Amino acid sequence: MKVPSFLTILLLSSLVGLWADDHSGKPLKGLLVTGGGHHDYGFQQNVIMEGVSQRLPVKWTVMFDMDPRESKSKLSKEGWANGYDFVFYNHCFAREDDKAFIDSIVKVHEEGVPAIAMHCAMHSYHIFVKGQKPIEKSWNKLLGVHSHGHGPHVPFDVTKVLEFSDHPAIKDMPDKWRTPKGELYYVLDVGEGTKVLAYGDNGAKHKPAEPQPCVWVNEYGKGRVFGTTIGHHNETVSTKEFLDLISNGVRWATSK
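Above: the chain's sequence. Below: its structure in token form.
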């Protein structure tokens, strides 16, 4: 019988150690809130759940509703987030204007439930709310940014911010990578305390003309929030870079 070499044993030990770091204890319980218009949420929910679960143990529950009224009904129930270690928002309900309802969701995270928000979650729950400056609206305060509108469907470069390049949510990502397809969101305001970890750049020929924050973290009340505007196209959501990024976000948000 062939005896394993010292290097082989050392490599296997290292891999076991890495596996143990992410698989110790019980799996995280994640709630994926998804649905709405403009995106292939059926495809994306499977890619997100499978991709994250390959990187850290998560037991998922999905709340998938194309009708905003159905989603609102479920998120209005008392204790809807009880028992979950984090809530992942990949939805697009831009026309919701019920401030009391939106504030009730924000309160769940303010009291300590971590939130992960991607792409059109940044255009949900604030655009039609009246009587407040955009960055003062509760959903935007939770997210840590105010976004409205986006550029054309072209790939864009994502570049890490040097100051925060060692942040756990992005430290193992490339210094720069390019999305295969893209829809770069305008980020019009960044809240106080928000740490922008990466910027997206469409290039000089496309709007937005200036690089835009596209990955960030925020802490709101007792809750941690990881956000990214990346993720319109299935091709982008399926990339190793995107799945590594959101998995890092889940890991950071739930590690407090």
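Helices lie at 6-23, 41-53, 68-75, 99-110, 138-143, 234-237, 240-253.
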